[in-house]
Design a protein that fits this description.
CATH superfamily of the largest domain: membrane protein fhac: a member of the omp85/tpsb transporter family
Radius of gyration: 34 Å
Number of helices: 11
Distance between the termini: 65 Å
Helix content: 10-25%
Shape: globular
CATH architecture of the largest domain: Beta Barrel
Strand content: over 45%
CATH class of the largest domain: Mainly Beta
Largest sheet: 16 strands, antiparallel, barrel
């Protein structure tokens, strides 16, 4: 394709020179002036444009009638016209006071089709290519589309896919464009090896990286797809793992992937150098900023002498110091850690230097790589915007927030020089990953009305790429039905407030002579207090519809204590949440705790005050064996605020609070066996989880052993002449084992518990299968 540029100045003589520039195999002849006086034209005449309007041509040139222009404007106008993709040739010349623009139009694409594709649907490929129906046909664009299609197949493990094109003229300057695809075979990962590791086994390091060996179900997660960017992300994951576990000298010497063409499988090898393991030595804070007291800052440090060295603790300490210094009015203050290794004692002394950093401002934030998540979802995690003072701590905090969202397989934030020395451009590179999951749970109850109960749910954490959370669940037993819908907008009204609602309905017809239907909703909003602490306010509305077959028969369950429905509970509550977990799916360190205050009496039939909470602490017991221990404590107390409470207001313990017992399976009961709930409860749990011996850790299977104990007692319900049993604080306890699977459908868990201390009237449930959640 050849394009000419001719500029004739009718006012003065111009020395002309022609140069031939070859780019990507296409020769473009540009004739430019080596010296010329500025010219002025009176009008622009467009020739050769039939499908593209003359106004479109004029809108894409920088030359305006009545204003001077030069050869630079000519070159810029030609480039802009070619960039539209509508033209195969552009020529410009001046005749008198008229600029004549002569164009040759590209053919129009009548239809774009894809042939041979089965693994990637047409709808997906249409979002990848730039060629489109009724758009211009451009060979340059088509070549770019071919590469984009190949990249899309490489992302699903088909890097040997080939793409060709067929162009069929259909008349009137139109063509049909077909991309012919040979998908090839899917490449897999046969083996992941580590060389040079002594402190941790291959299987432990394989659990750290995102790339996995091919297995039976890896076609669902696509984690066995080789990708150069994923390999770089795996290198960084290894560095962070070692740096956070004392190995400050760790290096990834090399990482490579070798393809065996005979089997179409990769062998990935990481060669590492671990170095020595360190503990923290002396830790000090120094400040050159007037008005900043180093001793005041020492109390903020997470790095303590004698502890195992951790880069995360150093970063957290820097974050706390930066926040405190910025709050005192020093936005440009810089916190720099300086480490001093003592090889004799195996310690690293850390000095934090606080000084007045260079003044720099954010010119712009550039986001790349997000194919699904919208730009504003990423931007709102930054406490900084264009024009603000540059602060490295704020950038680091934004990176942690983006990683915590769970939307991205990799997050990298870098800086480049802006348009001026004191301007910085933030470049945010992300890689979207799957955020949807399908869950299924089941349990078997062994009481008089025992049987299987099943629940299925669909969850999406990044709905439509907007960062919104939605979950739909439905469950069924022999005589029961459960439905629920939850939705959360994480940035309500543009603020960091997570607002949402929950809808639910339960239908229970398990008894012959009565039924209980429960339905309601809650409205909630959560506000952060610190990075680890948040508070949630809720309004809760629940309607209970109790129906018995015989209103006069006092032997019917609950007839003495419950009025025929409907019966309404309206309450407000506040939840304080502390979350320092290192991982939401498989936490190895940290605490997750909640404390709830609830008041009922905002209308309705219930009047009470409740306070209850639960906390779980995680700690890795054996690092190489990846044995994780956890301890949990829970407690609650309620009291009526206006007379007695309703039977449905009192606490009941679920089957996950003390495994081995049904929901509402322990605590005070009426003489006919109906659960009354209780006013006070205490629970405790200890658990140790571990990889299953002989099973690849990439499969996601873990085992666990546990011991649970607790009690539920007290009663404030009027019994109408009846009596209650089990109102004392008798202890219940159970022991058991679990099988946990981080499946492609979501985390699943199977528990088998044996009650070792119980009352005769308790209802047990030894088997339980469902979502793996211990928070």
């Amino acid at each position: 394709m050849k394009a000419g540029s001719r500029f004739l100045n009718a006012v003065s003589a111009v020395a002309l020179s022609a140069s031939l520039v070859t780019t990507g195999g296409t020769a473009v002849t540009l004739v430019s002036a080596t010296s010329a006086q500025a010219a002025v034209i009176q009008r622009v005449e467009v020739r050769g444009a039939t499908r593209v309007s003359a106004e479109t041509v004029r809108a894409n040139i920088t030359i305006v009638p009545g204003k001077t222009f030069s050869n630079t404007d000519i070159d810029a106008s030609i480039q802009r016209l070619f960039a539209t993709g509508y033209f195969s040739d552009v020529q410009m010349g001046v005749s008198g006071g008229t600029l004549v623009v002569t164009v040759s139009e590209n053919q129009l694409i009548n239809q774009v089709v894809f042939n041979g594709n089965r693994k990637i649907k047409d709808e997906k490929l249409k979002t990848v290519v730039r060629s489109e129906s009724l758009g211009p046909y451009s060979e340059t664009t088509v070549q770019s589309d071919i590469q984009a299609i190949r990249d899309a197949y490489a992302a699903i493990g088909r890097s040997d896919a080939t793409v060709t094109t067929q162009v069929v003229p259909v008349g009137e300057g139109r063509v049909n464009l077909a991309f012919v695809i040979n998908e090839g075979d899917r490449t897999k990962i046969a083996q992941i090896n580590f060389v040079g590791n002594q402190a941790y086994s291959n299987s432990r390091l394989q659990s750290v990286i995102n790339t996995k060996e091919s297995g039976i179900l890896t076609f669902l997660s696509r984690k066995d797809v080789y990708n150069e960017d994923k390999l770089r992300a795996d290198e960084e994951a290894l560095r962070q793992f070692y740096f956070n576990n004392g190995y400050a000298d760790f290096r990834v010497i090399s990482s490579e992937a070798v393809l065996d063409e005979a089997t179409n499988k990769y062998t990935v090898t990481f060669t590492v150098e671990e170095g020595e393991r360190y503990k923290f030595g002396d830790v000090n804070v120094e400040s050159t900023v007037e008005g900043i007291d180093p001793e005041e800052l020492r109390g903020l440090l997470e790095t303590k002498p004698g502890r195992t060295y951790s880069a995360r603790d150093v970063q957290d300490s820097m974050s706390e110091i930066s926040r405190r210094v910025a709050a005192k009015g020093y936005p440009f203050a810089r916190v720099t850690p300086r480490g001093n290794r003592d090889f004799g004692t195996g310690t690293i002394a850390v000095d934090y230097l606080v000084d007045q950093g260079e003044r720099a401002y954010v010119e712009r934030i550039e986001i790349r790589g997000n194919t699904r998540t919208r730009d504003y979802v990423i931007r709102r995690e930054f406490d900084i915007s264009e024009g603000d003072a540059f602060n490295q701590e704020v950038i680091t905090r934004a990176k942690r927030r983006l990683e915590a969202l769970g939307f991205f397989a990799a997050v990298n934030i870098s800086t480049t020089q802006g348009s001026q020395p004191d301007r910085v451009v933030l470049v945010v590179d992300v890689q979207d990953q799957s955020t949807g999951s399908f869950g299924i749970g089941a349990g078997y109850e062994t009481g008089n009305d025992g049987g299987f109960k099943v629940e299925a749910s669909i969850e999406e954490k990044n709905f439509l790429g907007r960062g919104q959370y939605i979950r739909v669940a439905a469950g069924a037993g022999a005589d029961s039905r459960d439905y629920s819908l939850s939705f959360t907008e994480p940035y309500f009204l543009g603020y960091r407030l997570a607002a949402g609602f929950d809808l639910f309905r339960n239908e229970d017809d398990s008894e012959d002579n009565y039924s209980v239907n429960t339905q309601g909703f809650s409205l909630r909003v959560t506000a952060p207090i610190t990075e680890e602490l948040s508070t949630t306010f809720r309004y809760n509305y629940t309607e209970f519809d109790y129906n018995s077959g015989d209103l006069d028969d006092l032997s019917v369950p609950y007839r003495r204590v419950v009025t025929q429905g409907p019966w309404v509970r309206s309450s407000v509550s506040n939840v304080i949440t502390y979350d320092s977990l290192d991982d939401r799916i498989l936490p190895r360190e940290g605490i997750y705790a909640t404390l709830t205050n609830e008041f009922a009496g905002i209308g309705g039939d219930s009047d009470y005050y409740k306070i209850y909470g639960k906390g779980r602490y995680y700690q890795t017991l054996m690092r190489d064996a990846d044995i994780i221990g956890s301890l949990a404590l829970g407690a609650g107390y309620m009291t009526p605020t206006n007379g007695n409470v309703q039977v449905f207001d009192q606490f009941t313990l679920g089957s996950s609070d003390i495994r081995g017992f049904e929901s509402a399976g322990i605590g005070p009961r009426m003489t006919n066996g109906d659960s009354l709930g209780g006013t006070t409860y205490f629970t405790a749990s200890a658990e140790a989880s571990f990889p299953l011996p002989g099973v690849s850790r990439d499969a996601g299977f873990r085992g666990a052993v546990f011991a649970d104990a607790g009690t539920l007692y007290g009663n404030k319900v009027k019994l109408g002449g009846d009596t209650a049993e089990g109102t004392d604080a008798s202890l219940r306890a159970s022991v058991g084992a679990s099988l946990i699977w981080a499946s492609p459908f979501g985390p699943l868990r199977f528990d088998y518990a044996i009650p070792i201390k119980k009352e005769d009237f308790d209802e047990t449930q030894r088997f339980k299968f469902g979502i793996s959640s211990q928070f």
